[in-house]
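hey m, so remember when u said the tokens were messed up on ur end? i reran from scratch. heres the input so u can diff it against urs
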Amino acid sequence: MSDALPSFRLPAEQAAYAAVLADLAGRDRGDEAVMVFREPSDPDAAVVADSMIRAGNVSDALYARLLAAVDRLYAPPPVTRAVAFDAFGTLVHIGRKRHPFERLIRQARDQAQALPSPMVQSIGLADYAAALGLPHPDAELAMLDEELATIAPYPDTLDALRRVRETGVRVAVASNLALPYAAPLKALLGDLVDVWHFSFDAAAIKPDRAFYAGLTDLLGCEASELLMVGDTWRDDIVGAVKAGSRARWIDREGRASYARRFIAIRDLSDAYPDRRRAAQMTELELVRGGIDANLDDLHAQQWALEAANFRQILRDAPETEKAAAKRALNDHYDTRDQPETSRAALMHSAISTIAARKA
């Protein structure tokens, strides 16, 4: 299967993409796999495609995950009951970064390695310095105060949180951070957030599954009903999809690699609803949206076409076969008022059509 190569940041990325594409095209269900690989708008497909391109080959485990993404095309669209946002780099930024905790760790590396990280325990800066056997950290406390005083939301943050809540979807802030950074976040965003889930409370750090399991427990939703939005690919995207959730990657500077672009957003206004605007969607996403919006009418058309085919068979059948043909037609008429909710056949036809045109 041939493919016009898209633009890439690096020649090595393009070469790896071409090698993976050739491998996929020769496999069972290759047309479907190639289509999802080329336009991985499913978050797990984007993670898989990114991993394949970085490796330059296709492992059996990654191929199985890619086919699982294909199979999701035939299923009803997922329901989103909660949206979780990472904090720093996603909702807020620090105007003047001083890294006071890191400064303490550099002063007592051996002791720090023997203790839990301040990211997974509820401990302040002064107590952490004492635990490390260091003197009272006056300089570091001043640095911390400077950091906390310069925490501010991005221009799109407050409006994005309001828009999500207006849809009736629960909002969470889910972040890896140390205790002192929580209070400023709550002061800035508190009225717009339903659930706070911080690593120092959870005793787990993204991308660990335990972190995401705790998050869905707090939200009272299934993993598949959660959309995670964040700026760190490994923690917020890979971690979320491995936990069974969906994800959007906030890429404010537009530096995403090829596969990551398909689930990247430039600002939070595109985070939810978790469909991109029409101009940003792939052809298959547009077709899928059209099928979902017109499913009843499309099934009615399909039923009518099949009925016409059965009538033609009845007309053309020899006398010895007319009774069987009439029974088949009557059986089809018996299904007329039965609701059809499957989109699999329609999606399969669409995928075949698009794949054949691009072959």
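this time it looks ok to me. Residues 1-5 have pLDDT under 50 and may be disordered. if urs says something different then somethings off w ur setup not the seq
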